[in-house]
């Protein structure tokens, strides 16, 4: 499969994750089932897209990739901190924004998708 498809899956996962986290942070305690499902689907799509791109581009496990996995784990655990009110809503939201900004910067600055060679063009005689 084309690495661009994995990138699209990754972005859709980001949208699901952030929608779920935002709804969890700012919703009432009894209305969190859909938000939790969105959070889980987002995490799954992020994992699928990220590891799909990693496998297709043969990048191995560089440090920036490992940091993104750690950020993924923290964002996955944020649901517990939010549900148990371990953090004030504004603090939780700021942590999510900072972690996502760092992950976005790591992904963009180290992206190998745009550096992949294009299909060879043969000149006609």
What are the main properties of this structure?
0% strand; 125 residues
Question: How would you portray this structure in words?
Answer:
α1 (3-26) runs antiparallel to α4 and α3 (63-83) packs antiparallel against α4 (89-109). This protein is elongated. It has one domain (3-109). It has helices spanning 3-26, 33-57, 63-83, 89-109. The protein contains four helices and no strands. The chain is mainly alpha-helical. The longest helix has 25 residues, at 33-57.
Rg on CA atoms, Å = 17 Å
Q: How would a crystallographer describe the biggest sheet?
A: none
- What is the global morphology? elongated
Question: How many strands appear in the DSSP assignment?
Answer: 0
What is the element layout, followed by pairings?
Blueprint: H1 3-26, H2 33-57, H3 63-83, H4 89-109
Helix pairs in contact: 1-2, 1-4, 2-3, 3-4
Brief digest:
The protein has 125 residues and is mostly helical. The chain has one domain. The chain contains four helices and no strands.
